[in-house]
Amino acid sequence: MFDTDKYGGKVLAAVFSLAVSAVFFATAIIPASPNGVLA
Questions:
Q1: CA-CA distance, 6 to 35, in Å (whole number)?
Q2: Contact 8, 2 (CB under 8 A)
Q3: Beta-carbon neighbour count of residue 31 at 10 Å?
Q4: Engineering a disulfide at 4: which of 8, 18, 27, 30 sits with its beta carbon 3.0 to 4.6 angstroms away?
Q5: Which residues cross the membrane (predicted)?
Q6: Which of 16, 12, 37 is nearest to 27 (CA)?
């Protein structure tokens, strides 16, 4: 049903890109939060 040899690299790349974009979004949003969570 799921061929990891064929699709594993693409899935890994998709997960990695989502993780990277999530980190960028977090760094953009957190400083703009009202309380300054990390400050």
A1: 46
A2: no
A3: 11
A4: 8
A5: 12-33
A6: 37
